[in-house]
Design brief:
By secondary structure, the chain is of the alpha/beta class. It has 25 helices and 14 strands. A six-stranded mixed β-sheet has the order 6-8-9-10-7-11. The chain is elongated and about 135 Å long.
């Protein structure tokens, strides 16, 4: 028994096949060697001279041999050993095949008439110059023909190699296996590839995490759902703005699912060759089916998932559409019955094909929104773990200072704050470093050395002061944080505000924001009786807001409750407007009327507070940066509280009443209903 067991491994030994292409290569090298080294003139790099130089060498006695090649009208010259030691011939010492001194020939030149040249040589001999003279003829040998046909031979060998590779590949068309170009580029994460990201590392995104966690739980415990008749979802589409954490969620799924996870980008399917994208889709799903249950993650799926027929202007067959058709078939086709879930992410859901978005393919569409105040605090906690910060750092304050920031923006703020603290040689990152980091990201790099005239500086100061005063006095304008006239990025001055996080916006709120944006130009008009180009960004913002009021949100009485915004047709090649010329004139007229009305309103406010405007501008010219406290010293307390201030005041009032025994656990104090204008 032992002998038989010992003999088993040697019964079918794996014989390594000799590679026949090595044999072809050796033959090719031998043939080239014979061709090159068969004649010294094929491999020796002879120095070229003219006939007058040769005559000078000959008269000096440096020539030992002259070889005349009759059929080429060329002469090869060999020097004497004494001549090789002369300074003008020292460059010939390393001309040998192995870097040594060449024995000859050393020079070559061409002659026009061989008869006249031979007569000159005879005259030189008669004059007593000693040298050998030979005559030869260069024959065209077989290797010359071989060198002429060498490119064709190489092409035939490569073609045979390609055909063998095609025939050895199994399945699919031959073109799909040309140098593996049709194979998927997906990166596989499984038990052998450790992914450290988990759902604990994903701060915020509670709703999105619950949806994705259920998919992971379905793969881990399928019987829990199938016992009730449930089916595994085919796919989940993560939709959200850039930087909100879509790819991070996918990494957490890869770390938590404990099943094979294929990750790739939508652009990995795109190739210049026809049929390659569809072939890669087939190969990707075949690999996933072999390892099922598995997850496929396609990042930026809009690269291949755009609606078909959008670019029909070209009139050609679109490779991207073929790739999309194959993806649709693999996700939910005629013979699809596998435990393969497709996760995808995009920030352009409006351009995706409707067939891709239907139930049965992407059963779940998970919207990943920008984080709110509470979620931003959790994100700060995650990104501040590796950073040395002061113990008294207020995370609530940092969360309030970053409205509208995505998770990627918050990570950038934390990293930038650490760099700023290191630049200032601090041992830990403090509150001011984070504020400087927010200013750096929002406003750009501070440019203190930018040359600005005193007149321009004064104009900028009044411009920014106009913004500050109007926004301070209006009820729905964003409260001011600080104002600066130090150039940052592309702007010569900037004002920082802390906007409220609203879910819906009323007309009064938009109009107040427009009036505050026009406060800068209104201040220039009142003080200097002229306006400048510094209000360009303000005018762009105000014009877009007015256009939205009239043509998008239906907030204008002249146009009515009509919207001309259609997200489905925004990316099509539409050359006509969805309204008549008369309506276009009404829209233009109403937009201009709204903007001019808010501009006059800003001028009225600043005319009333003309003295305060001058005081604020003077302080801004003196300090270059002013804060909320400076505005309170000049204008007094803000007349209107923000929503957060109202909630905080209400909580303080309730706490005061509780402490006085006026409220019980079941309070009967009625809250005032909020007035909502329709």
């Amino acid at each position: 028994m032992d002998r038989k067991q010992n003999k088993k491994p040697s019964q079918n030994p794996k014989k390594s096949r000799p590679n026949v292409y090595w044999f072809y290569g050796v033959i090719l090298v031998i043939l080239l060697g014979i061709g090159l080294f068969g004649n010294s003139s094929n491999w020796q790099n002879l120095s070229k001279i003219d006939i007058s130089t040769f005559e000078r060498y000959l008269n000096a006695g440096d020539v030992s041999e002259v070889n005349i090649i009759r059929n080429k009208s060329r002469v090869n010259v060999t020097l004497t050993s004494e001549a090789l030691n002369k300074s003008e011939h020292l460059h010939l010492k390393n001309k040998g095949i192995f870097g040594n001194q060449s024995k000859g020939p050393h020079y070559e030149f061409e002659v026009g008439s061989l008869e006249r040249f031979e007569e000159k040589l005879e005259l030189a001999r008669d004059s007593g110059i000693q040298f050998k003279m030979q005559f030869s003829t260069v024959e065209t040998r077989w290797y010359s023909y071989f060198l002429n046909f060498l490119p064709f031979i190489i092409f035939i060998i490569i073609w045979i190699y390609i055909l063998r590779r095609m025939s050895s590949s199994s399945g699919g068309s031959p073109a799909s296996h040309l140098f593996n170009i049709g194979r998927s580029k997906a990166r596989l994460f499984d038990q052998n590839t450790e992914v450290k990201t988990s759902f604990k590392d994903v701060a915020g995104l509670q709703g999105a995490k619950e949806e994705v966690q259920e998919i992971v739980d379905f793969l881990k415990n399928p019987s829990k759902y199938t016992a009730l008749g449930g089916k595994i979802p085919k796919g989940a589409l993560l939709i959200g703005a850039p930087g909100t954490g879509k790819t991070l969620l996918a990494k957490a799924v890869a770390g938590e699912a404990k099943v094979p996870f294929f990750s790739l980008s939508g652009s990995d399917f795109v190739e210049m060759f026809v049929g390659v994208g569809a072939s890669r889709v087939r190969d990707l799903f075949s690999k996933a089916k072999e390892k099922s249950p598995a997850i496929i993650f396609i990042d930026e799926i809009d690269a291949i998932g755009r609606a078909r027929g959008r670019n029909s202007i070209t009139g050609t067959n679109d490779e991207r559409e073929n790739t999309l058709n194959q993806l649709l078939t693999e996700m939910d086709g005629f013979g699809t019955d596998t435990n393969v879930i497709v996760l995808a992410a995009t920030n352009r859901a409006d351009v995706l094909d409707k067939a891709l978005m239907r139930a049965g393919r992407f059963d779940r569409q998970i919207f990943v929104d920008l984080p709110d105040l509470r979620e931003r605090k959790e994100i700060f906690k995650v990104h501040l773990k590796p950073i040395k910060v002061k113990e008294d750092l207020d995370l609530d304050f940092l969360s309030r200072q970053t409205p509208g920031f995505s998770g990627a923006d918050i990570a950038n703020v934390c990293n930038e704050a650490a760099l700023i603290a290191a630049r200032k040689k601090r041992k830990s990152v403090c509150k001011q470093d984070f504020l400087d980091a927010v200013d750096r990201i929002v406003g750009g790099l501070e440019k203190k050395n930018k040359i600005i005239t005193q007149e321009e500086k004064k104009t900028i100061a009044y411009h920014e002061s106009g913004h500050a005063i109007v926004s301070w006095l209006l009820e729905f304008a964003a409260p001011l944080v600080k104002v600066t006239i130090v150039p940052r990025g592309q702007s010569l001055g900037a004002a920082w505000y802390l906007p409220e996080e609203r879910q819906i916006v009323h007309t009064d709120q938009i109009l107040d924001e427009m009036c505050a944006a026009l406060g800068g130009r209104a201040a220039e008009d009142i003080v200097f009786n002229k306006i400048s180009t510094g209000a360009l960004s303000d005018l762009q913002k105000v014009t877009s807001q007015a256009r939205a009021i009239v043509s998008v949100y239906g907030m204008n009485a002249a146009v009515g409750n009509i919207t001309y915004y259609d997200p489905q047709t925004q990316t099509d090649y539409n050359f006509t407007k969805p309204y008549s010329e008369e309506t276009a004139r009404i829209i233009d007229k109403e937009i201009s009327k709204i903007v001019e009305k808010q501009y006059q309103r800003a001028k009225q406010i600043l005319s009333k507070y003309r003295e305060k405007l001058s005081q604020l501008a003077a302080r801004l010219l003196e300090k270059e940066v002013i804060f909320k406290d400076d505005l309170e010293n000049i204008l007094g307390k803000r007349p209107h509280m923000t929503q957060e201030e109202k909630i905080e005041a209400q909580k303080k009032e309730e706490d005061r009443k509780k402490s006085n025994g006026l409220l019980t656990s079941k309070s009967k104090v009625k809250k005032e209903p909020q007035k909502v204008e329709e």
